[in-house]
Structures are given as C-alpha cells and as structure tokens.
Amino acid sequence: MIKERTTAPVYTIPLRYRKMENLHIVFWLLKDVAWCMIWKPLGIAMIFPTLIISLVIAWRTRQYVAELCHNVAISLWISANSYWMISEFFHFDAMVIYGEMTFKHLALIPFVSGILILAFYYLWYQPRHKEEESEMIEE
Question: Transmembrane ranges (predicted)?
C-alpha cells in the first residue's frame, strides 16, 4: 500500500532574519530585567535596540499582511512597555492627569493601537483574503 504524501505550507525565515529576531529577544529580556531590578541606565539603553529591531522586522515582513500586523503590534507593545517603564523610573507614573487617570495610563494608547491592528487583521482582513494568503504561502 502506497501512502500519499501531503505537503503543508511552510513559512520559512532566512537565517540572518532569525538571528536578528533572537537577538531582539535578548534585548527585550534585558530591558524587562532592568525594569524589574530598577536598573535605569540599562533599561533605558535597551529600549533603542529592542524597538529598532522590532521596526526592522516589521519592515522586512511588510509584504505579508499577517506578519506585518503582528510585528507592528509587537512594536507598539514594546513602545507602551518602554513608556510605562520610564514613567516608573522617573516617578511620574502615579501622577494624576484627570480623574483617576494617571500618566501610566497613557501606555494604553499604544497597547490599544496594537490590539486594534490585530482586530483589523483577524476580524476584517483575514476573512476576506483567505484564498489569497494560502496561494501566497504555497508559491
């Protein structure tokens, strides 16, 4: 009996891109550890390579809407996270802007922006482009 081979679509990442993504994770973890340990200079310094690499990754994946949306959401998450860290480092996180809203709550702007981008992708774009995306993957 001969078994039929099925081939599932495969998404591959060039090795140089994968190395950059892995380095990005190192920078991100260093930033968050520095935040946790209140190591201000390291935390602030790690914002730049973490955010820059996330933007480069988003730019390099711009031809794939799914990847672009997720990578832009990650860049927005890093931005929100970095702002929140800075607000805590410099003790303006608890300062009231209006009512019960504090400066820390401004981090919600990029967080919610990332959520809206992913909502756009999953609720609007993906349902309307399923065939197009599967054809692109199989090429």
Answer: 38-59, 68-86, 106-124
Per residue in 77-113, pLDDT (tens digit) is 999 999 999 999 999 999 999 999 999 999 999 999 9
Residue type, 65: V
Return the residue matching tokens 């790690």. 46
State both tokens at 105.
């709550």
Instruction: Give the three-state DSSP class for 96.
Output: strand
Both tokens of 46, joined, read 């790690």
Maximum C-alpha span of the chain? 73
Q: Say whether 101 sits in a helix, a strand or coil.
A: strand
| Whether 34 contacts 42, CB under 8 Å | yes
Q: Determine contact, residues 93/104, Cβ cutoff 8 Å.
A: yes
Count, residues in the chain: 139
